[in-house]
Amino acid sequence: MVDLPGYGYAQVPEAVRAHWVNLLGDYLRHRKQLIGLVLIMDARHPLKELDIRMLDFFHTTGRPVHILLSKADKLSKTNR
């Protein structure tokens, strides 16, 4: 299991973020022990571009991908 807390929310310079993306891509592509991806998303917020890129990238590995929505209890009744 790999935990990437706040991978899309860290306020860092773009060069640092680009470096992280390269490191993460290499790790996900080559780490044989990774058998799937569970992307835990806050149900109150839509997918961001980085989330979509992560899903698209991991899909190409042929490994299973699942999205787990958290904080659904925090949604307003109209958004449930």
Automatic annotation (TrEMBL):
PROSITE patterns: G_ENGB. GO terms for cellular component: cytosol. It comes from the Bacteria. Residues 1-80 form the EngB-type G domain. SUPFAM superfamilies: P-loop containing nucleoside triphosphate hydrolases (SSF52540). One of its GO terms (molecular function) is GTP binding. Keywords: GTP-binding, Magnesium, Nucleotide-binding. This is Ribosome biogenesis GTP-binding protein YsxC. It comes from Neisseria gonorrhoeae. The gene is engB.
